[in-house]
Amino acid sequence: ISKKLLLLLTLWTGIFCNYACYSIIAPFFPQLARSKGLSAEEYSLVFGIYSLSQITFSVIVGRSLTKIGPKFVVVAGLFLTGGSTVLFGCLERSPGGAMFFWLCMAVRAVEGAGFAAYLTSSLAVLVRTFPTDPGYYVGLTETIVTVAMISGPPLGSFLYTIGGYSCPFVSFGAVIIVMSVASYFLIAEEKPDASEKSDSLTLKEYRGLLKLPSGAMVLVTVTCNVTADAFILIALSEHLNQFHLTPMIIGSIYLCLFLSYGLSSPISGKIADKMGGEFLLQTGGCMIMTVAFVLIGPASFINFKPKVWMIITGLLLKGLGAGPLISCSYSAALKAARRSGLAEDFRTYSLVSTLVSFSIPLGNLFGGVTTGIMTENLGMRLSTTVYGGIFLFLAVICLMVHFYEPYLHKKKQEKKWRWMKQNLGEEMPLVKKDPSSGYKPLENGRIPSQSDALLSHCIVPVSEKNDVILSDNKSKLEWLDDPAQAKNFWLT
């Protein structure tokens, strides 16, 4: 087995165990919390602190990832989540009341921080390991999440039957700790290139990525998708009670959502990697999700009573439409970052990974907070109508970005071209032709297209000299005599 495959299995096992633990807390913890004297509001805060901690630490860890290094962050993140999961299983031995409440809050906050660190760094490591297929491997990771959410409750119930409350948490936590040890040996200590920055990511870099339409759409699409998932997971059970179904059938209906999403996520990611058109895929996905929410309610403007077959069809469509929203978002943001001049390095992967790992808990938090309010005040049918409208609007935005972003990029390139012409005049450089490829390969392996050649990473001939590099460093035009320094120089 190759080292890459072992690393992939290790990262996915860590993600599987974390999401499996996430899925088993809801069935088991409320009963323990009530026996320890906690109210519904108090144990809801225990659930909420996990997402708040993830939101906070995904940004903190994301900024420091390039400085600390991915190996330490992955290992430390897994160790924190594994240890916290074991401790959470031991809390049944804690005294009740305020002591139990604050211990739960502390353990869940540390667990959320650890998982934020792990998810952010593991996505960046994954894309660095497989740089040619980022959408596909992010999509496969979402499939692992789906498998964990499906298999977590039955596995947890089995372990609960064997050893009580602590058994599932201690078991999953122990596996996570073992994965942290495995990660230590599988993730290489890579020294950054001489031209690659190793300091912390700055807010300016995040703002630069968010100014790109693709970067902003990562936040919007991922957050909306996860919020919708949280709404369905919380509200669907009560919606199905009107049909007097058995728990087994209700559980099987939930599977429809997970199964279709687990299939569509890697497939849409693979299509995006090979053919592009991420926002066209997302437009189609949002349209499918609009139809899905119309059926799940059904929407208030449809004169039909709720039916089980409509809900099942809606859940299948919801999972199918959600597939492109995370995998294609990552791929689109990465491509936009490259076009804007960011280097093909771990720093760029960390930027995009931070946006994704920030958006997921943000969506969980929004979904958890708003679902009860919406169903209480609007009812299920009107609530699903609102979600259908949101995704219809999002489909329009995705379609606009598909056409607008290339136009925006072209305008920026024309502006750079004019700048070069004004500053260079008759000495306008030409890209050196190569008989085999048409353009001379760059130091990092990329071959620029004709539209990017003079305006991004450029290797150019000047007079009788050897190839040199054109750089604009804070508006100061300079010629670099050493092509080896070219990797991170571009016009801005």
UniProtKB/TrEMBL annotation:
Record InterPro entries: MFS, MFS_dom, MFS_trans_sf, MFS_Vesicular_Transporter
Domain Major facilitator superfamily (MFS) profile, first and last residues per copy: 7-413
Transmembrane spans: 45-65, 72-88, 100-127, 139-163, 169-188, 209-236, 248-267, 279-302, 308-334, 346-366, 386-408
Highest taxon of the lineage: Eukaryota
Topology of the protein relative to the lipid bilayer: Multi-pass membrane protein
GO cellular component: membrane
Subcellular location: Membrane
Keywords, in A-Z order: Membrane, Transmembrane, Transmembrane helix, Transport
Protein name: MFS-type transporter
Gene source species: Parasteatoda tepidariorum (Common house spider)
Source taxonomy: Eukaryota, Metazoa, Ecdysozoa, Arthropoda, Chelicerata
